[in-house]
Amino acid sequence: MSYFGDIYRGIKTLLTGMSVTGKYFLHSRKGAITQQYPDNRDTLKMFDRFRGEVVMPHNENNEHRCTGCQKCELACPNGSIEIIWDRQIDPESGKKKKMIDQHIYHLGMCTMCGLCIEACPTDAILWAQNFENSVYNRAYLTKVLNKPGSKLMPGVEE
Amino acid sequence: MDTTTIKSNFKSEEYFINMGPQHPATHGVLRLLLTIDGEIIKKVEPDLGYIHRSIEKMCERDSYQQIVHLTDRMDYLSSHINNEAVCLTVENALQLEIPERVKVIRTILGELTRLASHQLWWGVMGMDVGALTTYFYGFRDRELINDIFEETCGARLTMNYNIPGGLMFDIHPNFVQRTKDFITHFKTKLPEYDRLLTGNVIFQKRMKGVGILSKEDAISFGASGPVGRGSGYSCDVRKHHPYSAYNQVTFNEVLKTEGDSLARYQVRIEEMWESMAIIEQLIDNIPEGEYKVATNAVIKLPKGEFYQKVETARGELGVYINSTGTKNPYRLKFRSPGFSNLSLLNHIAVGGKIGDLVASMATLDLVIPDIDR
Ligand code: SF4
Ligand code: SF4
Predict the structure, then answer these.
(1) Does A129 lie in the same domain as A80?
(2) Which of B26, B146, B202, B205 is found 20 to 30 A from B160 (Cα to Cα)?
(3) What residues make up the domain containing B108?
(4) Do A89 and A145 have their domain in common?
(5) pTM for the full predicted model
(6) At B301, is the secondary structure helix, strand, or coil?
(7) Do β-strands B15-19 and A142-144 pair in parallel, antiparallel, or remain unpaired?
(8) Which long-range contacts (CB under 8 A, 24 or more apart) does B247-253 make?
(9) What is the position in ligand 1's atom list of the atom closest to the CA of B69?
(10) Domain-embedded: residue A143
(11) Which CATH number characterizes residue A138's domain?
(12) Which residues pair with B112 in a beta bridge?
C-alpha cells in the first residue's frame, strides 16, 4: 500500500513544484531580471559608483589635478600604480616643483579595491563605469592615465 | 552457472577515485580522494592547495587598510562579513568608538550578504541533487541584492566597503527603498522555494537521514554555522557574542536536532526568514550621524594579541592579529568556518553512497577559497 502511496505523494509534490515553474513559464517576461547584453549596450547604464577602472579626468585645457604626491601609489596593495615624476620649473612661480611625468596604472593587476581613490587628496583619479576591459594583448592593460602634454591644473595644491 | 559461481569469478576489491578538482559538485577546486567499495564510500580524504594564495602571509606585508580587501577573496559569498571581521578587530585594538549609524548599516549589509549567500547555496544545492530549476530561481533573487550592493558599494562580489573606522562612503540614497522593495519581493518568493524543492518527495528521500552528524561530533569537529545548528549545537555568534547592532534586534537562533542533510537545509531556509526580520527591524531607523571616524593614515595597532569572531553565512569566522606595534601585523590568522566543516565530511560520508556524499557536501555549503586561503 505504501508503495502506491509513495507514487501518489510523488506525483502530488511534482505537480506542486510544476505549478511554480508553470507560472513562470506562462509569464516569462514578467519580472525577468536578465540583462539582454550585448543587445542593450546602448541603453545599459551602470550605477554611478560602479568600479570599472581608474581614470584621471582632464579638463578642456588638457589639465589634470594630480600633483604627484604618490599617496595612491602607497595605498595600493598590489603595486598597480606607478608614478614617474621629476622636478620641473613651475611656469607660474618660476620655482622647481614636483610634477608627474607619467601616472601608470596596471589595470591587469588592479583588484578594484578603491583605496587609491580614497587616498588621493586632490580627487585627481576617479572610477569610470566602463566594464568592457578585455583586450587582445596583456600589454594594453597597462595605461598611462595622464594624457600626453597635459599639465597640472592651476591652483591645485596638495 | 549459478549466481554463486559468477560472484566468485569476479574479484571484489576497494579502489580509489578522484572527485575533483574539477568536479561540478565540489564548487571550486577541491579534490576528494575517495576510497570506495562498489558504490559504498570507505574513506574521503580532502586534498587542498589548488587555490592557495597565501592570504595570511600577504596580510603580514600589508597595512591594516589593505588587509580588508584580501578577505573579500576568502569566502567571496560573505565578503561584507569578512571585511567587517577585520575592521572590528582593528577597531577593538585601537579602542575606537564606532558611530551607531555604521553599526546598523554593517548589520543590514551583513544580513543581506547572508541572504544572498543562502540564495546561491539553495540554487546550487538543488542543482547538485538534480533540480536544475532552483539554480535559476536562486540567482534571480540574488540579483536584486547584488544590485543593492552595486549601487551602494560599487561592486557585486568583492565589496571592500568596510574600512577600519567605518565605511568607505555613505549609503546611496536609494539604499533604504531598494532594500525594502527586495524584502517585500522576497517574502513572496521564499515560500516558492519550499513548494518547488523542500516538499518534493524525491528531494526529501535524498536528504533525510543522509550524512548524519551528532551534536557531540559537531562540537568535537568544531562545526559552526548552519552545520552545527542543524545538529542542535547552539553556536550562533550573533546571539552568544553580539557585535555591531545584533544586540539591538530580536531574532531566533534556528536549531534542528536531526543532524542530517535535511536539517541543515531547513536551518538555512529558516535563517533567511530571520535575516529578513533583522533587516526589517533596522531598515526604518538607521540613525543619523557620521559614516566613519577618522583614523590615522598609517594605522599602528598597540602591542598585543587581538581576536574577534563573527558569524558569516557559513559559520564562525575568527580573526586573530598578533601585533608588535608596527604598521603591519606580525601574524594574522583566520579561523575559517569552511575548514572545520570540511573536516567532518569523512565522518558523515563513510558508509554512504557516492550520491549521498554529493548531497551531504552540498548541505555543508563549502566555499573552497575560504578553506584554502
Ligand atoms: S583600486 Fe586598489 S588595486 Fe586598483 S589601483 Fe587602486 S589601490 Fe590599486
Ligand atoms: S593621483 Fe592623487 S594621490 Fe596619486 S599622485 Fe596624483 S594627486 Fe597624489
Answers:
(1) yes
(2) B26
(3) 13-372
(4) yes
(5) 0.88
(6) coil
(7) unpaired
(8) B248/B104, B248/B281, B248/B282, B249/B107, B249/B277, B249/B278, B249/B281, B249/B282, B250/B281, B251/B277, B251/B278, B253/B229
(9) 2
(10) yes
(11) 3.30.70.3270
(12) none
Residues with CB under 6 A from ligand 2: A 66-72, 83, 119-120, 122, 124-125
Instruction: Classify A126 as helix, strand or coil.
Output: strand
A-chain CB neighbours of B153 within 8 Å are: 49
Radius of gyration of chain B (CA): 22
Residues of B in contact with A77 (CB under 8 A): 62, 66, 69-70
Residue-by-residue pLDDT tens, chain B, 373 positions: 566 666 666 667 788 888 878 777 677 788 888 888 888 888 888 888 888 888 999 889 888 889 998 898 888 888 999 999 999 999 988 888 888 889 899 999 999 999 999 999 998 888 888 888 888 888 888 988 998 999 988 888 888 888 888 888 888 888 899 899 999 988 988 888 888 888 788 888 888 888 888 888 889 998 888 999 988 888 888 888 888 888 888 888 888 888 888 899 989 999 999 999 999 888 888 888 888 888 888 888 888 899 999 999 888 999 999 988 888 899 999 998 988 888 888 888 888 888 888 888 888 888 888 888 8
Which residue range forms the structural domain that includes residue A118? 53-152
Burial of B372 (0-12, 13-18, 19+ CB in 10 A): buried
State the virtual CA torsion across B96, B102, B104, B110 in degrees, nearest 10: -100
Chain B, residues 188-227, CB within 8 A of chain A, namely 192, 195-197, 199-202
Written as nine digits, the cell of A64 is 589634470
Question: How many whole angstroms from its chain centre is CA A68?
Answer: 22
